[in-house]
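Posting for a labmate who doesn't have an account.
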Amino acid sequence: MIETAAYTFIKQGFEQGFEQGFEQGFEQGFKQGIELGIERDRKEGYKNIKEHVIKCLNKRFNVPVPHDIQDSINSYTDLISLDSLFSQALDCESLDDFRCCLIR
């Protein structure tokens, strides 16, 4: 009877510990997965905006966008600046005019 009680006690402790550990691990893994997904999507979104700014300039002026301008566009890291850059790409008079708007 003592063996059975000890076995039952250990089994219950193991099951409880396993369940708690599984729940905590699942919650932590889920949270990390969401955070990684959001970060990946943010980076992908920024990359897409940068590509659209370059494509807009290329189409507007019918010339390849110089590498220095592309490099400057690709150095932007925040959404507000990229949005402003896209508006400037739509409104500028020339590539030189656009170049003056870029971060130095």
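Reply:
Got it, the structure tokens are right above this. DSSP finds four helices and no strands in the chain.
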